[in-house]
Amino acid sequence: MAANLEDVPSVDLITEVLRRAKCSSKPDKRIILVGPPGSGKGTQSPLIKDEYCLCHLATGDMLRAAVAAKTPLGIKAKEAMNKGELVSDDLVVGIIDEAMKKPSCQKGFILDGFPRTVVQAQKLDDMLAKQGAKVDKVLNFAIDDAILEERITGRWIHPSSGRSYHTKFAPPKTPGVDDVTGEPLIQRKDDTAVVLKSRLEAFHMQTEPVIDYYSKNGLVANLHAEKPPKEVTVEVQKALS
Question: What are its E.C. numbers (predicted)?
Answer without folding.
Answer: 2.7.4.3
